Amino acid sequence: MFNYDKKRALLYVYSGAGGVDAQDWASMLLRMYQRFAQRKGWGFTIVHQSFGEQKGIKNASCEITGDGAYDILKGEGGVHRLVRISPFSAKSLRHTSFALVEILPEIIPQEVKINQSDLRFDTFRSSGPGGQNVNKLETAVRVTHIPTGIAVAIQSERSQAQNKEKAVQILYSRLAKKMEEAKVKELSELKSETAPGGIEWGSQIRSYVLHPYQMVKDHRTGIKSPQPDKVLEGDLEKFLAAESGHQ
Asked: Which of 14, 62, 159, 235 is the most exposed, fewest CB within 10 Å of its CB?
């Protein structure tokens, strides 16, 4: 339906059930994909982060640029589960955390017809870990497609105009993907969207167990690794190869 740029992928990570541990888990996943991109020699740019209480993240969005980036990573979308001894537990209790990964391709903006009056723009100051503002000016931009509620926030560029342009560009990709998933041809046919849900038990695509044993298992392909430390450092090749054959 749409022409995708196969060299560019949009990565979203959302913390799910698990509180502070889930926010830390989301930041670990973000780092894992950043390490994988480095191994591939790809570009990796964090365009927005919403930070949690303990330097973890509530959500983050990134741009990944490299040969075949979208085709290689598209199978990573889904819920990822972590089991470990919580570093935030005074009693060193075992804790299960969830995070959602979403992978989208970038598209040619002209392929989606958006009524500009359907867009709402909000500006705010970029924030860092702990909630402190890292910019005195309101250069960060959030654009919301009012009919569907789909929103994109960008804070990576230096100027408000650049962030606005980038936010609109990524919004086109999100809307195009939603149109394909809903099997509709017109944007007006899309229904209102709610926040990402189902980030919990029963819906995970991969589990990362650090305690009481060490194992990473993909629940779709059955591929396992007894070295989660290496996987979390970006060693994803065998999982991605199996996903490619499974799709």
From this structure: 159
